[in-house]
Structure to design on (308 residues):
């Protein structure tokens, strides 16, 4: 029995939308899954805030409908390729990329912060990816979906730090309790959260207060950068700090709030009892808008600019 109305990919789906999808799939039996998702995005005029067609979001929605048994997509025409697994990272070491720096923070100012995914500067993206790949304990093979990537250097141009912000976690009990939203509100407004998925201070850099200063400066510009790239702001930042490995001190020093802990579960957990153990992590949140709860608990059609 199909629910009369539900939310997938941030869209409210009812009987009329399912009927539209069914009619679209019946239009041409030779259409591939890719073509169907592109045509669905066009039919709904489903675009991001800067006008780009959201065909990948449409593809994800169709796959979720098929997983629930509500539609049957045509067979795949080729096996999906994991582009991230086969991506070759820059092999060469960057000369002078990780010098020993023990100077006081004031001597490194002004910090230079470049959002490399939108930058036209030659060499910034390869440098950023190589540093994360070589020096972050989780490694790095690029990211998918909405994201921002920051490379931070000192006044002499020496790289200091790399940060990645991407999609927020779908479900996190303590975070959701802190925000105060329900399941439907979360489905509608999760795109207004961003997750700090990678944060690296390069090896050899021993500068007190640098980590919290970088976080503060990046946080101040992030919503504006997200608005420019994707057409909507960010109201709350989140991150998950592995308790056994890190203290989270730099987040607390930058005024992030510890909102609780994860349960040590993963996305692969199943209701029937299968559990995959994961490290317990502290949950830190940082509000970019003083009225973040009101905006995230209601229908969220944000203005072009968000107030700090």
């Amino acid at each position: 029995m199909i629910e009369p109305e539900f939310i997938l990919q941030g869209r409210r789906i009812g009987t009329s939308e399912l009927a539209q999808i069914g009619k679209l799939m019946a239009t041409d039996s030779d259409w591939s899954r890719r073509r169907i998702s592109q045509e669905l995005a066009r039919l709904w005029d489903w675009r991001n805030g800067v006008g780009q067609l959201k065909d990948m979001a449409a593809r994800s929605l169709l796959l979720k409908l098929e997983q629930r048994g509500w539609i049957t997509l045509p067979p795949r025409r080729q096996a999906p390729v994991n582009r991230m697994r086969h991506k070759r990272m820059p092999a060469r070491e960057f000369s002078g990329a990780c010098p020993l720096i023990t100077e006081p923070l004031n001597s490194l100012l002004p910090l230079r912060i470049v959002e490399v995914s939108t930058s036209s500067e030659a060499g910034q993206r390869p440098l950023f990816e190589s540093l994360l790949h070589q020096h972050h304990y989780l490694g790095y093979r690029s990211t998918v979906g909405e994201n921002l990537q920051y490379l931070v250097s000192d006044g002499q141009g020496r790289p200091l730090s790399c940060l990645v912000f991407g999609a927020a976690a779908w479900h996190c009990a303590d975070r959701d309790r802190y925000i105060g939203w329900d399941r439907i509100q979360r489905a509608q407004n999760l795109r207004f959260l961003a997750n700090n998925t990678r944060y690296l201070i390069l090896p050899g850099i021993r500068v007190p207060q640098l980590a919290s200063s970088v976080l503060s400066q990046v946080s101040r510009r992030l919503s504006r950068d997200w608005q420019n790239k994707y057409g909507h702001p960010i109201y709350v930042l989140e991150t998950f700090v592995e308790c056994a490995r890190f203290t989270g001190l730099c987040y607390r020093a930058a005024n992030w709030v510890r909102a609780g802990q994860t349960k040590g579960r993963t996305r692969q957990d199943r209701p029937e009892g299968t559990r995959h153990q994961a490290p317990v992590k502290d949950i830190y949140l940082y509000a970019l808008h003083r009225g973040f709860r009101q905006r995230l608990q209601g229908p969220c059609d944000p203005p072009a600019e968000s107030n700090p």
